[in-house]
Amino acid sequence: MALLKDTPGEQIFNKVPEVTLYFWIIKIMATTVGETAADYLNVDMGFGLTVTSWIMAGLLIAALLVQVSKKKYEPWIYWLTVILISIVGTLITDNLVDNMGISLEVTTVAFSIALAITFIAWFCAERTLSIHSIYTTRREIFYWLTILFTFALGTAGGDLASEGLNWGYAQSALIFGGLIALTTLAFYFLRLNAVLAFWIAYILTRPLGASLGDLMSQPPSEGGLGLGTFEINAVFFAVIIALVAFLTVTRKDQLPVTD
């Protein structure tokens, strides 16, 4: 769980979970919830895009403050922050496209550039992009900023693929899922760098989750299954809570610090 570092007897804890199958299951479900929860609050609850954005941004800031204040990884606050940042990332893209009239093509390119700049700044400052060594506040800030841009980019890219390019929700999900599978194969059989493979897969899970969310929630007339955003959110939240509780008890996703 921890690694001695610098001061004798001092334990330095990593602030993020180990990348296991549980990690990817919760991550994909959290990205799907980010898509459907934003739509549910905005449309079904009638809050509107602006009010929903302010509420969720406030909750995200509160969660981030708690997360950063922790001395080690704690599943409940980490995954709550991921879910909230998923929703806010979706809302950022929706505001740019729906309220400001910026095209999906432009937002996709803009968030790609923002993500690239964040990676470059992170590496220049820390000489690593590994999530195995998130034990300082600066590294954690870089980490969460990166996560925010991956969610915003994934929302824009997923919508661009399914709607702008007319791929449809099911085909988009299959394409993004296939790209994740290829990345996994490249890691295990072609020795693709572990850090690069992780971030490629992490970025791709967002448009995959967004496509799956739209596929399940959108009406059949628009290419979806019409399952309803409330039902999807309820089921996914229940599964996420159960998995987080399991990980809290078993500690199967605890990660020691390594530079």
Describe what is shown at a glance:
By secondary structure, the protein is mainly α. It has helices at 21-44, 49-69, 75-99, 104-126, 137-164, 169-189, 194-217, 229-250; strands spanning 2-4, 11-13. It holds the Pfam family DUF347.
What features would you describe in this structure?
This is Membrane protein. It comes from Thalassospira mesophila. This protein has 259 residues and is an all-alpha fold. The chain has one domain. It has 8 helices and 2 strands; from the N terminus they run ββαααααααα. It has a two-stranded antiparallel sheet with strand order 1-2. β1 (2-4) and β2 form a beta hairpin. α1 (21-44) packs across α3, α4 (104-126) runs antiparallel to α5 and α6 runs antiparallel to α7. The longest helix has 28 residues, at 137-164. The chain starts with a strand and ends in a 9-residue tail after the last helix.
Write the layout of secondary structure elements.
Layout: E1 2-4, E2 11-13, H1 21-44, H2 49-69, H3 75-99, H4 104-126, H5 137-164, H6 169-189, H7 194-217, H8 229-250
Antiparallel strand pairs: 1-2
